[in-house]
Amino acid sequence: MFYKVNDTSIRFTGRWDITEKAATTTAAGGMIEVGFSGTAAVLYFDMEMNMHPYPHLWISVDGGAKIETAVDHVLRVEAPGAGNHVVRVIYKSAVEEQHRWYKPLIGKLRFTGFEAEGTAPLPEDKREIIEFIGDSITEGVLIDAMYTFEQYNQNNRPNQDDSTATYAYLTAMELGMKPVIMGYGAVGVTKSGCGSVPKAAEAYPYNFDGSPAKAQNPAVIVINHGANDRRQPVDLYVSEYRNLLKVVRKINPDARIVVLSAFCGVYPRELTAMVEEFNRENNDSVYFIDSTGWIPEEPLHPLRDGHRIVARHLTEELRKIL
After folding, report:
1. What's the CATH number of domain 129-321, 3.30.750.24, 2.40.10.10, 2.60.40.420, 3.40.50.1110?
2. Distance of CA 143 to the CA centre of its chain
3. Range(s) within the chain of domains with CATH label 3.40.50.1110
4. Which of 165, 206, 187 is nearest to 15 (CA)?
5. Beta pairing class for 23-25 and 109-119
6. Contact 23, 12 (CB under 8 A)
């Protein structure tokens, strides 16, 4: 029997546009959970407009090892035996430069449902949400930079990137929280980025153009922007960062908002002063964490070890806030 995306046996985590026919995301790190009964399930994806190289996924069954695969029209999952099972699919990585904001979407994951003997209940998930807003570093770009198989560098991205190895995902796991990740390559507070994604304040309210993002009600929001703004005048950077804070606060009135300075050292003193001024003017309590010195400024995109170091520092700092 076929089950649509609005069935109660399916749960989505992340920034998804969900209709009766499909659930679509362009943000790496989004997760699909499917509860099925029997020995097998077939997952269906709408591949229209997707192009080589296709997005990569992590797939696991019943909490077992994660297996990496490129998305396809159907992905078959076979359980070790009959009974109730849970499949977890995480949007691991994609090509930054593929169109992923304005339709027709190319760099997207679109799930249309699954086929199985029956459905099964999903385990309860009471974890609080921690949301991360950032750029290619938050997306997980070049975490495995050594995997270069194709001449055009962007075509290596699905093999080189991993949203689940980022400081964001690792910090959420360490804190026992559920990660919602919004990271897009080359985006900053002052500029648009790869795939036609607008600058941060304009993009945040949406999943992609024409799709308002559902409020996640996060307990904590961590913002890390600056790596792509480092060549901009400091006054513009600070002004645009303040605009982003206003947008994020309006949508999330109860969340703890954390401004995390760029790991490559972009205007940390000025950012500190802006946060203090923002709090005074708005009677707010936005937190500032200075990441200066946590990792070397190069490479700009940390490898796996660099992300683990950042996650260790950030987890320690966030525990002081939570």
Report:
1. 3.40.50.1110
2. 14
3. 129-321
4. 206
5. antiparallel
6. yes
pTM, to two decimals: 0.97
List, in order, residues 6 or more apart from 99 with CB less than 8 Å away. Answer: 105, 106, 107, 195, 196
Per the CB < 8 A criterion, the answer to whether 109 and 91 are in contact is yes
CATH 2.60.120.260 in the chain, residue ranges: 2-119
What is the rounded CA–CA span in Å between residue 322 and residue 185? Answer: 29
132-150 per-position pLDDT tens digit: 999 999 999 999 999 999 9
Using CB atoms within 10 A of its CB, is residue 125 exposed (0-12), middle (13-18) or buried (19+)?
A: exposed
Map residue 196 onto helix, strand or coil: helix
Nearest Cα to Cα of residue 113 among 255, 182, 10: 10
Topology at the third CATH level for domain 2-119? Jelly Rolls (2.60.120)
Give per-residue pLDDT as tens, 288-307. 999 999 999 999 999 999 99
